[in-house]
Amino acid sequence: MTAVLHDFTLSADRAATAPPEARGLARDAVRMLVSDNGILTHARFRELPRFLRPGDLVVVNNSATLSAAVEARYGGEAAVLHFATWLDDGGWVAELRSPEGVPFTAVAPESGARVELPGATATLRAPWLPPAARLWVADIDTDVPALLARHGRPITYSYVTQHWSPDYYRTVFGREPGSAEMPSAGRPFTETLVTELVAAGITVAPITLHTGLSSPEKGEPPSPERYAVPAITARLVNAAHATGGRVVAVGTTVTRALESATDRSGRVHPAAGWTNLTLGPDRPARAVDGLITGWHEPGASHLRLLEAVAGAERVGQAYRTALDTGYLWHEFGDTALLFAQPAPTADR
């Protein structure tokens, strides 16, 4: 069953090529497949409150999306430079892409090479995570936030057929600029929906995780990312578990952050810094009881994270159902709410 999940075929017509608003849908009207206690339910995202209960805790990512793609030239060829994250030494992690949104193959990146940007230059220092050569550390001779504010646009890939304004890449939770790509699991939330959750006795709490760049090379593990779990959120997670509530993470980003701050007993502590945690069979989820997520491509490391929360059997069942019933993939697509198998006892 796990092999089927990781090796499935995704046809081009399953990619959401534009925001749901362009398809005549409200943000919270995208489809949501719910897997709870072995039962699958088809719903719309705005129905989320009926699948939760008083005492549950929904944890959201308050990272805001940067306009992190900048037109560039490298080796005399047109390119786009994607800014992933800033480093403590002042450098930036970046990736060269083609103007069509696919990997840049015209000229191989080299240490010391210069990437021409609007009114600025990026000098490639070295690969960030060798032996992979997708991401490079670059030194930029200008203020990068100002460069992105003036010349940047949201990062897109080849399945998105036109450029959309930054408004389409904002979530209602975004307060801390820093994500290279939108924490897209939070996109379907609206202020009205958040109000309904709170009015129903469901608590909402934030973490911060600044997302890096997707589309890793085959076999490349998830990149390290900056994160912070505040003390109040750690307390709320522990309190929810102590009183029988469930902790529902909005996205793989929230799951990674919370689990990075969780000890072996399942207790969450305040934490901040870089995380390189990879969840999977050898490291199951300890704090997260449910996960709101988009649909991920075959072979994506995110699939193992989903399995670490909900189990391979449930994730496989959900993916086969989504493939059979027309769900849409990627950041503008549909969603899932996957719950873990309930523990047989109150011990965590």
Task: Summarize this structure as a short list of keywords or feature phrases.
about 350 residues, alpha/beta, nine-stranded mixed sheet, six-stranded antiparallel β-barrel, 7 helices, 17 strands, about 25% strand, globular
Structural class: alpha/beta
> Per the principal axes of the C-alpha atoms, what is the gross shape?
globular
Main sheet: which strands, in order across?
2-1-17-16-14-3-12-13-15
**Biggest sheet layout:** 9 strands, mixed
Structural write-up:
This is S-adenosylmethionine:tRNA ribosyltransferase-isomerase. Keywords: Cytoplasm, Queuosine biosynthesis, S-adenosyl-L-methionine, Transferase. Pfam families: Queuosine_synth. By secondary structure, this protein is α/β, with parallel strands linked by helices. It is 19% helix and 27% strand. The protein is built from seven helices and 17 strands. It has helices spanning 2-6, 144-151, 191-199, 231-242, 252-260, 302-310, 312-324; strands spanning 31-36, 39-44, 57-61, 63-65, 69-74, 77-86, 92-97, 114-117, 120-127, 136-140, 176-179, 203-210, 225-229, 247-250, 271-275, 290-293, 335-339. It has a nine-stranded mixed beta sheet with strand order 2-1-17-16-14-3-12-13-15. A six-stranded antiparallel barrel has the order 5-6-7-10-9-8. The protein has a two-stranded parallel ribbon with strand order 4-11. Helix 6 (302-310) crosses helix 7 (312-324). It is globular. The mean pLDDT is 93.
